[in-house]
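Contributing new records

If you add data, match the layout below exactly. Sequence lines come first and carry their own label; structure lines follow with theirs. Keep one chain per record. Anything else will be rejected by the validation script.
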Amino acid sequence: MTATEDITESRLLLAEYDRLKEEQKTRIGFRDNLLYFTLAAVTAILATTVHSGQTPLLLAVPVVCLVLGWTYLVNDEKISAVGCYIRERLGPRLAELSGAHGAVFGWEIYHRDDASRTTRKRLQTAVDLFTYAALPMICVGAFWCSPAARPSLVLVSAAQTLALAVLGWQFLRYAEW
């Protein structure tokens, strides 16, 4: 038997599944750590602002939240895309090749049928929106109320507000309720 005879479509698809699950696992860990890192970064900025009394530093919070929030969102979307691909393409193709009756990779479907899933997804979206949109907007609002709100910085903060609104809309757009 040659090496090419040992390579079957089923083996290739199973190898693809293994790689996709590894990518998904890595992305989940990275995404979840982004939330902790964001909270640590915001806390550090707020502590520095309070300690120094320099309210313009509050405008660093939206920048941090925009960059990390977008990275979080992109990773979350890729995690979902991997699951969708496995459910809709890879699983059915392997079921067809193997002659299996019913779904292959049942967990990919089973865990989505949990009665509490919609509530959990909505709560997670609320946490994401608070962390990456509302919290930085609170900082922008505090800056606007400070005596340090000069026209040039107000213009910068207005651009940040627009960018945060777009990020918040993207979180809602990609939410899978």
